[in-house]
């Protein structure tokens, strides 16, 4: 029947104008689709703007993003019903850079792009004794590793001879030390690995043989937290001052877990 009278001005539809099942597939021109100017969805604090429902015993809910030819696409799908999943993923506030990964931030409040720390053996460093220096008799003395060979995260301090675990780099570390004494008789000599100012582990040569260029060395794997620091000390009881040679070294790297 033709329209008689004045045509009413366009009035947007509201949720009150639509009841369940009043619009069916046959009412929509699927080939043309719904253009963006006709689709503006609003979320509230408690209601999502779109819900992709699942079908019992058939499929969990998902959305599909097609290519420009609409011949194929990728899907984002819900976990199964058995998982009881009920969470929100907040996207990062900025794009990442090359080789970064998408992960949950430290407060578990949103996703973020970050450089993975477990993909490489970093941080790592190696330092040597720049020149001979003395270890007094019966005196625990900090070994002066004051010359860096490399230091990926600038975490080794050549003035305090300490390695400090940087932010985001907690984990297991392989630590190796080798100290060569310029001259020695058959007496006790030790390397003491200090963690946060206290003796954690000792490598010892009990003096079986002695002689010039006596060597004490060892390796250990340690669990280190952010801001933990490690440092090497030496001890000897030869009866007189002894020198540490400049080919002594201290190094560590984070293990991939």
Structural features, described:
The structure is a single chain. The chain is mostly beta strands and 257 residues long. The chain has 2 domains: 8-85, no CATH class; 124-254, Jelly Rolls (Sandwich), CATH 2.60.120.40. 0% of the residues lie in helices and 35% in strands. The protein is built from no helices and 17 strands. Strands 7, 9, 10, 12, 13 and 15 form a 6-stranded antiparallel beta sheet that branches. A 5-stranded antiparallel beta sheet has the order 8-5-17-11-14, with no helix packed on it. A two-stranded antiparallel sheet has the order 1-2. A hairpin with a 6-residue loop joins β1 and β2.
Question: What's the topology here?
Answer:
Layout lengths: L61 E5 L6 E5 L23 E4 L6 E4 L9 E5 L4 E3 L5 E2 L4 E5 L4 E2 L4 E3 L6 E10 L8 E7 L2 E8 L9 E10 L4 E8 L5 E3 L4 E6 L3
Antiparallel strand pairs: 1-2, 3-4, 5-8, 5-17, 6-16, 7-15, 9-10, 10-15, 11-14, 11-17, 12-13, 12-15
Can I get a quick summary?
The chain is an all-beta fold.
Features:
257 residues, rod-shaped, 0% helix, Jelly Rolls, mainly beta
What can be said about the biggest beta sheet?
A: 6 strands, antiparallel
Task: Count all strands and give the number.
Answer: 17
- CATH fold name of the largest domain: Jelly Rolls
Helix run count: 0
Identify the overall geometry. rod-shaped
Low-confidence stretches: none
Classification by helices and strands: mainly beta
**Into which percent range does the helicity of residues fall?**
under 10%
Could you name the CATH class of the largest domain?
A: Mainly Beta
Q: What is the distance, rounded to the nearest whole angstrom, between the alpha carbons of the first and last residues?
A: 75 Å
Rounded to an integer in angstroms, the radius of gyration calculated over CA atoms is 34 Å
SSE pattern, N- to C-terminal: EEEEEEEEEEEEEEEEE
**Average pLDDT number:** 86
Strand content: 35-45%
Oligomer: single chain
User: What is the number of independent domains?
Assistant: 2
> What's the architecture of the largest domain in CATH terms?
Sandwich
